[in-house]
Write a structure and sequence with these properties.
The complex is a heterodimer of chains A (about 160) and B (about 200).
Chain A (H helix, E strand, L loop, with lengths): L9 H18 L3 E6 L4 E6 L9 H21 L7 E5 L3 E7 L4 E8 L4 H24 L8 H15 L2
Helix pairs in contact in A: 1-3
Chain B lengths: L2 E3 L4 E9 L6 H11 L9 E4 L5 E14 L2 E9 L7 H7 L5 E7 L5 H17 L9 E6 L9 H8 L7 E3 L8 H14 L5
Parallel strand pairs in B: 2-5, 2-6, 6-7, 7-8
Antiparallel strand pairs in B: 1-2, 3-4, 4-5
Classes of the chains: A alpha+beta (about 160), B alpha/beta (about 200).
Amino acid sequence: MVEPSLVLYGALYQRAMDVLQETLQETGARYALFVDRKGFVLAHKEALWAPKPPPLDSLATLVAGNAAATQALAKLLGEARFQEVVHQGERMGLYVDEAGEFALLVLVFDENAPLGKVKLHGKRAAETLARLAEEALANPPKLNLDTQYREEAKALLDELLGN
Amino acid sequence: MSTINFANREINFKIVYYGPGLSGKTTNLKWIYSKIPEGRKGEMVSLATEDERTLFFDFLPLDLGEVKGFKTRFHLYTVPGQVFYNASRKLILRGVDGIVFVADSAPNRLRANAESMRNMRENLAEYGLKVDDVPVVLQVNKRDLPDALPVEMVQAVVDPEGRFPVFEAVATEGKGVFETLKEVSRRVLARVGST
């Protein structure tokens, strides 16, 4: 089966943002991201007090790659999956949980956020996001990008990469 | 298969550079990174071994600009070419929108080119894809080698039916690098809204 595109739109997107915001408040984490397993950011929130986040594209790409490798490791060991991954350094930590088949929840937290809270609320949030992802996949929005989009994008390609 | 972020008004595409080990996939990305102006590129991530062989992937995000209110972005990836890193290659192909197959012109790499193409077909099949389902561009690299094989010979091995557009390249000097990227990007864009 070809992997479907996961697109959050309108109310669904707002609900996802609310979940991320709530999770930041409950856990004390710095950043919360909802990413697809291809490595693209679908939605993200940062705590008001948090410093500038690291490049989100790189973060999402590496997390998606890591999650895929973790899944392959689980299979090697006879497990269907390892549902969550936690990395903890001296000051910063990363919590990743599956949000259904096609997406992941990522929480970046520092030493002020207790890991227990991060895991507890992270898991709940991941379950809610998984349901949102299912809804999004069931009702994909029409994009309506036409010939004009393609032509304008090609012109930009010429500008960036030369004629 | 592109990823759309309506809130940020972004459309993201994933382009993967595939091919045998040492054919020049990472060199393509490094050249692109060195020539694209600041503000139009993100951070380049390389997961490589100490001797600079790609271990997991290289990653480079590019901003094309805004079209009809949507920021259009290409995420470029390379896969590790060495035979034993197939698990990594398979993971990187997930959700791919376009592929640049980088073939090596050296006579002793002809078999490796063919093997890599076969491997790519197999890995795509794991995601329910055939090569006809994804825009593929063939880049025949290292044309500066004194004993470089004729392009037709490389093509006959990796794409005997001649389905893919072919570009000659010397990635170390940037020759053919942008042309290849442009063609695969154009083909990816041509599918927007039609799939």
